[in-house]
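Could you join me in thinking about how sequence relates to backbone shape in a protein? To get us started, please write out a protein record for me. Would you write everything just below, so we can both look at the same thing?
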Amino acid sequence: MNVTSITKKIIILISVVLTLSCAGEPQISVEPSTYQTGDMAPKEKRTKWFHISNSGNSELIIENVRSLCDCIVIGQIPESVAPGQTDSIEVTYTALDSSGHDESSFVIRTNSDPKNTKVTIVAEILPLKLSLEDSTITVIPFQTGGMPNPEEYSIQLYEKIIAGIPENYPKVNPNELAAKLQSDPNYTVEPLQDITRKWINLLGIRFAILGDVRPEQTGKSVTVSIMMVDGLFHLPVAQRISGVAIDDVSNVIADSVNSILANLAAYEKQALFQDFQRKWAEQRQKLIKNPAPEIKMENVRTGKLVSTKDFEGQPLVIQFFSEDCDHCEEEMTWLSELVTKNPHIGAIGVSVDVGEIDSVRSYLLDKNPPYPVIIPDEENETQLDPYYGGATPQTVIVNPDGIVVESLVGFSQGSLKRFENILSQMSVK
């Protein structure tokens, strides 16, 4: 081999090396690399966006993001990050169900060197102090913006409210709770009642009273808003009273608080009903005039899969029922007679007794509806979420084009007549 050929090979080798070096490399950095959540309650959720930056000179490819524990759920993940750019990963951390120090991690795998970048979430999980025996109560001074001398008025109001609370409810100074609320990372992110419930559980306070007093346009009266948070109940009890004379505010608040405490079960039942109505109305609005989401589950009696899509081109009635629902039996009888007389109408019964297939099978022996009945298990019960509002019976009607035209909760002869009128206007396509 002569000198010229050797020189050419060296030049080619140098050229390849230079080409590879010019291609550059990605360089990942994550902010924060360690996330300090601070104090958390057992099973509390905290969502955080982690920012991924590429300070290298070639594209950063995100190959995988893997959680190292069940307590971390990875949300939105970018596919890549260009040189000099930043993108984000959504991560939700759920605190353990017991108190103590916790360090949990997830790993971001990329085409950088090193390939795996570990990110740690650190939490201090506080013990719950509230017990079933507690009857302690605290009043956070009411917001009184717009009132004359608002701070002084708020303090006077607080003292009068406290004085009116029955003696069998031990009073707790609100200062510590107020400080915890204002320093909580989710204070302006989540509903105030949820943050309050978290902290009264951690501080061992059963009830917290919050509210505000706002002048009305007439200037002669005010509107009083009262919210009581029960640490052992997941919804707040709220009242809004208009037209209250300024001199009578403290008496109105004290009377309302005492009435709630004296009739707690009734007020909380009402709160449940109102919350159910709100959720059902929101769900119904999303369903009506939109394509029916598919439900595909096991037929209780045959074991075969049944889907709502099996009934495309014909009217379809979907009936959600439970074994302990008396009116569900009446509606099941009505639906059985309806489809027997009108074979062109399809029907599916959906048991909401998740996983209780043997019990539901026995329940159906006497009734023997002439249409398939399906039941969810723990793996596919989320298919019910777009439909089921939490109460039975619930009836959904889908037209032959696959569009939801009605969704109603409850039972009445009037609602059955309404269903029949809607179905009578449909024909098989």
